[in-house]
Amino acid sequence: MSLVSLKDVTEIVRGVTFSKAEGSEMDSVGRIPVIRAGSIQRTLLVHEGQIWVEESKIKEHQLIRKNDIIMCTSSGSADLVGKCAIAGDDHYVSFGAFCAGIRPNPTKVSPSYLYHFLNSPKFRNWTKNSSGANIKNIRVSELGDFKFELPPLEEQKGIAAILDKADAIRRKRQQTINLADDFLRAVFLDMFGDPVTNPKGWEVLVLKEIADIRSGVTKGKKLNLETAVTLPYMRVANVQDGYLSLENVQKITVSPSDAQKCKLIAGDILLTEGGDPDKLGRGHVWNNEVPNCIHQNHIFSVRIKQQKQIRPEFLSAQIASQRGKRYFLKVGKQTTGIATINKTVLSEFEPFIPPIELQDKYIQVSNAIGSFQNKTPIENIGLFNSLSQKAFTGEL
User: Fold this and answer.
1) So what's the pLDDT on residue 20?
2) Total-model pTM
3) How far is C-alpha 20 from the chain's CA centre?
4) What are the residue boundaries of the Type I restriction modification DNA specificity domain, all occurrences included (predicted)?
5) Is 2-150's fold the same as 203-353's?
6) What is the CATH number of domain 203-353?
7) Residue 40, class by beta-carbon neighbours within 10 Å (0-12 exposed, 13-18 middle, 19+ buried)?
């Protein structure tokens, strides 16, 4: 192994800088599409989220080439900084100033190895310490100076081959999950109609009329250590879109009153107050997965007053539907890369209330699909991260 800087084995390409007035959402002669940080997903979405910029603003080396790794370097969310995707081909497309292009030198570093390393827990832990109070960012010079241990090229290729296969398996499992989710959405449409327009005319109520909405505990409060208690708590990282990630449940020391106020009970719906715009209000129903658990202030818990009127699982599904997503996007506050909602706008959400028997039928189908997804032969994303961790700490 040799210790190298990222700039020793790659070319770091700065993103295109342009003013709002210089960009256009329409294709026209003499303009080149520029993608933004939102196009950096599990794959690079070069045909989505484009802004068209005059050709003269873009240098040739800023066009995306095969094996370029495009990274988000600035965002309002520390979780998004460092997020990256690799280009599978050359594209007559560039990327904006909140991104950087990392162009591997194939004689020194395997592009696939580098891509997996930049997505590994080891590197992402470094990106989470990026500078900035409100806008998190990594300077291009800082990125280039990042040092890491690099094995010989043939060894890199061997490790990359293992991780490529594991990633392909993970993607196939995700495709299976996506197909099951599509089927469940089709079931919802068939049973209840379009969740946005409510064509079947189900009764509509305001969320605050049928549920109690609570914020969680704030970290950093002064405490009387003689009476304080230490409990597990749900963070934003634990609450995902349609499931709970419980691989890393941390603990927090709080006052007895906060412990009581923020205690979770079965049937509570956990919702995040911020995140990617398309996942705003993401959440899941709590079923006492962790005993004596509370939640932090960046997560709301929605506790239904009368479950004979509406089931938590059905309300959660409706919040996750286009009815919820469109509402939250409309009322949420948006900053660079993230959007947020507050307790007031969440309280004003208007779910529709079909007969409880119909809700229960939908929940039966949903549970059956969930059981199928859990029985798929490939383990969850946590195991891939574990494999990645071993690969870049010399344990593979």
Assistant:
1) 85
2) 0.63
3) 26
4) 4-178, 199-361
5) yes
6) 3.90.220.20
7) buried
